[in-house]
Design a protein that fits this description.
- The structure holds 2 protein chains of 2 kinds.
- In chain A, helix 2 (about 75-95) packs across helix 4 (about 115-130).
- The radius of gyration of chain A is 22 Å and the shape is globular.
- Chain A has 2 domains: about 5-140, Arc Repressor Mutant, subunit A; about 145-355, Dna Topoisomerase Vi A Subunit, Chain: A, domain 2 (3-Layer(aba) Sandwich), CATH 3.40.1360.10.
- Helix content of chain A is about 40%, strand content about 20%.
- In chain A, strands 11-8-14-13-15-16 form a 6-stranded mixed beta sheet, with helices on both faces. In chain A, strands 1-4-3 form a 3-stranded antiparallel beta sheet, with no helix packed on it.
- By secondary structure, chain A is α/β, with parallel strands linked by helices.
- Chain B is of the alpha+beta class.
- Chain B folds into 4 domains: about 10-215, Histidine kinase-like ATPase, C-terminal domain (Heat Shock Protein 90), CATH 3.30.565.10; about 230-295, Helicase, Ruva Protein, domain 3 (Orthogonal Bundle), CATH 1.10.8.50; about 310-445, Ribosomal Protein S5, domain 2 (2-Layer Sandwich); about 465-510, no CATH class.
- Chain B has 13 helices and 16 strands.
- In chain B, strands 1, 2, 3, 4, 5, 6, 7, 8 and 9 form a 9-stranded mixed beta sheet that branches.
- Chains A and B meet through helix 1, strand 5 and helix 2 of A and helix 12, helix 13 and strand 16 of B.
């Protein structure tokens, strides 16, 4: 990979406060005094600057900056929005408090139309300071849930993830504060869909198969990805993914496995580098006899998205391309729950155990 | 069987063909009568270098449909002995000869008199003074069959001493017409006339309203010079008449003395070409005359002398447009003199944008020929056709913008398509000048519009930037604990210093 790579590091409160004040406020004031157009430099996070690093097998952010300046009608709004978010962060850091994404949006709502705008600028600032969003004392609420024989310590409380009924542990946004105390499991199973996760919980799959179940409920948030990454990294447990047999399933796997464009500067601390795609593979549909009526027709959008992801460098392996070929040929997709057509417990009693036994996954 | 021939007098002929002169119905007749009288009044002033002061009144007459039109000018006046012919004889006019004038053939005014007479059976009343302290006052009727004026009292008995010295002519015409239906057209006509005659004062009064058009400039257009015919501009009949009136004894002598741009060398060549050497011009047979005519047409000449033309000039035209429309932007151009078929012409054009110019679905077009507004048959007019041919979007101009276009064609012979003088035929030479002129105006307007847009954008840009500067100053003040006002002032200084120099719009720029 050419050029410098931008890798986020956790930074101290004081360091973040100092850098943020300088880059966003002091520099602006200095420019104004010199009668110069104030500029805030923001790393570009776009498919063009994000690159796949085959050596490390993750997507990383190349260090390339854009000038967000004041004297430009196309920029001035974002320029001031950046200052607004930075001012909120400065306040948080000074008070040593944390805030949710939504809090930041409401703090200066007069400058934002949607929360997406402020969320995006928080990521801009994290990237600009080469640090994580958590270091800015901003956290995203997490959708992630975990159940299994795992005990974590959170702010002094020890939580047993096998004794939380069917609701499980709601993964905290401050996932880095967790301490893994004890565990009794052979692998981690990450399930894309909440419905399939509930099925496995009810079937007490984690107990029977000595594993930890995690779901990100769709596209995984930062905390869930970081949680999975830490389980894998710190406990040395293999991670398997169970997603829908469609283009988005592959994409979700790819995000867990190699990181995303928005958070490419944090990829190294978010990516679970040996996550394996267990299912549901397009080839499984015939292999496990999923009836035709339980399969869905791919939409035009699905097909377009498939074309896009099948060109990603990390999907060039034959195992993936073969699955893409099947989707392209049949035009079919299926949800994990489609296996219920074979019986309600088919997923937990037959499909997963068999796949694991046969080591029938791709990566 | 003996055929019976009746010779018709010109008056008879025009009576039967009054449609071609614009008197075909009671509405049109009201408009045409006023127009003809106003044009005569203006000509009477301008041709004598007098700034026109015209008074027009329209009143109800005795019976329901009768109207009394009175037009008074401050022109040079008409000598008493000529008055009967001027108003009572069709095809009598001071307006023959090759020079640009409003009217042609002296027909319009007489047609008005004729129409008044046949509808009301009343004579036209004329009062005129040449400024010698005396004035003539008489009633004039036309003996239609003989084309002879009947003046009561006769000119020699019509003179009396003026109360106070004046010069000019006052015409009172009685006419049976539908004036109420014509009046909008009359107002329109007067307003348009004011555009091309910004040097006139005109007071108009009818039972509905009073309109006053005030002189905006003391400058009169240069007086046209009378010039000889250009050889390309005559037809066979005119040639025959010219020969009849010529005293020349040789054809070359006739040619060189009667035409412009035709010297002895060319004359000799024409005579040789027609094989008419040593012929007496007065004794040419019809066949020989045709030969001469054809030889003349087959010869090349210099373009006709334009000094017989009297355009308004860019300054006056623009002044007229500004006076009547008070536009946000106005510009005028004059094209160099050109000729078609031996007739010299000049096209001058103006464009007005915004201000008093209303926005309509299409451009507002004002057409003038020899200072006469043309109000009918716009769609068929050469100007209208040229406007439709131009791709205006190239200039960032759309027909629904508040734009008025003025086209003034002056010529010794305006190629009207009809005798009613309503629209100019599509003559390629004229169309070309109109197009070039319009394109020049379009470019100027386009430049103005883009400058205006740029200024507007710059202003909006400054406003937007300062709005954000306000917020930014508050944030900087909050974080760095500095005076908000000071930061804002720095922003103001920056925004003002760079306004105009920095790009508008766009995304985050790459460093």
């Amino acid at each position: 990979m050419e050029g410098k790579i931008l890798i986020a590091e956790r930074k101290s409160r004081e360091a973040v406060l100092r850098e943020l004040t300088r880059k966003v406020f002091s520099n602006t004031l200095e420019s104004l005094k010199r009668l110069e157009d104030p500029v805030i430099h923001i790393p570009v996070r776009s498919p063009k600057t994000v690159e796949y690093d085959p050596k490390r097998d993750v997507v990383l952010l190349k260090e390339k900056y854009l000038k967000r300046n004041f004297m430009n009608l196309g920029n001035v709004r974002r320029f001031v929005q950046t200052q607004a978010v930075a001012a909120t962060i400065v306040e948080l850091l000074k008070l040593d408090k944390h805030a949710q994404l939504r809090d930041v949006f409401y703090n200066r709502a007069y400058l934002f139309e949607t929360q997406a705008e402020s969320d995006n600028i928080i990521e801009d600032l994290a990237a600009a300071l080469g640090t994580t969003r958590e270091s800015l004392h901003i956290v995203a609420s997490s959708k992630g849930v975990c159940i299994g024989k795992l005990k974590v310590r959170d702010h002094g409380d020890v939580i047993d993830c096998s004794k939380l009924g069917t609701s499980g542990l709601a993964i905290s946004p401050f996932v880095d504060e967790y301490e893994f105390v004890e565990y009794d499991a052979d692998f981690i199973l990450v399930i894309e869909k909440d419905a399939a996760f509930s099925r496995l919980v009810e079937d007490r799959f984690w107990e029977k198969h000595r594993c930890i179940l995690v779901t990100g409920k769709g596209q995984a948030d930062i905390a869930t990805r970081r949680f999975v990454r830490r389980l894998n990294h710190e406990l040395g447990l293999p991670v398997y993914l169970l997603v829908d047999a469609d283009s988005y399933g592959f994409y979700i796997y790819s995000v867990y496995r190699r990181g995303s464009i928005s958070f490419s500067f944090e990829s190294l601390s978010l990516a679970t580098r040996d996550a394996k795609l267990l299912g549901l593979l397009p080839s499984d549909l015939d292999k496990y006899g999923v009836p035709k009526y339980a399969r869905l027709k791919m939409t035009e959008h699905d097909i377009k998205f498939l074309q896009k992801i099948r060109s990603y460098p990390w999907f060039q392996k034959e195992a993936f391309q073969r699955e893409f070929d099947i989707m392209e040929k049949t035009g079919e997709k299926a949800e994990i729950q489609a296996l219920a057509a074979k019986g309600l417990t088919y997923l937990s009693e037959k499909y997963i155990p068999e796949k694991l036994k046969n080591e029938d996954w791709i990566e | 069987m003996a055929e019976h021939y009746v010779e018709k007098s010109p008056a008879d002929f025009f009576y039967e063909n009054r449609a071609i002169a614009g008197f075909d119905n009671p509405v049109r007749a009201a408009y045409s009568a006023i127009r003809e009288l106003v044009e005569n009044a203006l000509d009477a002033c301008e041709e004598n270098g007098i700034l026109p002061d015209i008074e027009v009144t329209v009143e109800r007459g005795e019976s329901g449909g009768e109207w009394i039109i009175k037009v008074k000018d401050n022109g040079s006046g008409i000598p008493a002995e000529v008055i009967p012919e001027c108003f009572g004889k069709v095809l009598f006019s001071s307006k023959y000869g090759n020079v640009q004038r409003r009217g042609r053939f002296g027909m319009g005014g007489t047609m008005a008199v004729l129409y008044g007479q046949i509808t009301t059976n009343k004579p036209v009343h004329v009062r005129s003074s040449v400024g010698d302290g005396f004035e003539a006052e008489m009633d004039i009727k036309i003996d239609i069959q003989r084309n002879m004026p009947i003046a009561i009292p006769p000119p020699e008995k019509a003179m009396k001493k003026s109360d106070k010295p004046w010069h000019g002519t006052e015409v009172t015409l009685y006419i049976e017409a539908e004036y109420p239906k014509a009046r909008q057209k009359v107002y329109e006509y007067l307003k348009h006339t004011a555009v091309v005659a910004p040097y006139m004062n005109l007071r108009f009064k009818d039972p509905y309203q009073e309109l006053i058009f005030t002189r905006k400039t003391e400058k009169l257009p240069a007086k046209p010079k009378e010039v000889r015919y250009h050889p390309e501009g005559v037809d066979l009949e005119t040639l025959r008449r010219m020969i009849a009136n010529s005293k020349a004894r040789t054809i070359t002598g006739f040619l060189t003395s009667s035409f412009q741009r035709l010297g002895p060398q060319t004359a000799k060549k024409i005579v040789e070409k027609a094989r008419l050497e040593n012929k007496n011009p007065r004794r040419l047979s019809d066949k020989e005359l045709l030969k001469l005519y054809k030889a003349m047409k087959n010869t090349n000449y210099q373009a006709p002398d334009p000094s017989c033309l009297s355009p308004l000039g860019v300054e006056l035209l623009k002044a007229g447009v500004i006076k009547e429309f008070n536009p946000e932007f106005a510009e005028a151009v004059q094209r160099p003199p050109r000729a078609y078929q031996g007739h010299p012409f000049i096209v001058e054009l103006a464009i007005a944008y915004g201000g008093g110019v209303p926005a309509t679905p299409d451009f507002l077009l004002f057409r003038f020929a020899n200072k006469i507004p043309l109000l009918y048959d716009e769609y068929s007019d050469v100007s209208s056709r040229v406007i439709r041919q131009i791709n205006w979007s190239r200039y960032g101009i759309k027909p629904d913008m508040p734009i008025a276009i003025f086209v003034h064609v002056v010529s010794t012979k305006i190629p009207f398509k009809t005798l009613g003088k309503e629209y100019i035929a599509y003559i390629p030479e004229i169309a070309r000048e109109i197009e070039i002129g319009l394109r020049e105006l379009a470019r100027k307007l386009s430049l103005y519009l883009s400058k205006k847009k740029a200024a507007m954008l710059a202003e909006r840009r400054e406003k937007t930037l300062l709005k954000y500067a306000k917020w930014s100053s508050a944030l900087i003040s909050e974080v760095l604990l500095v005076e908000e006002e000071e930061v804002y002032n720095l922003y103001v200084r920056l925004v003002r210093s760079k306004t105009g120099g920095v790009k508008i719009g766009g995304e985050d720029t790459d460093s």
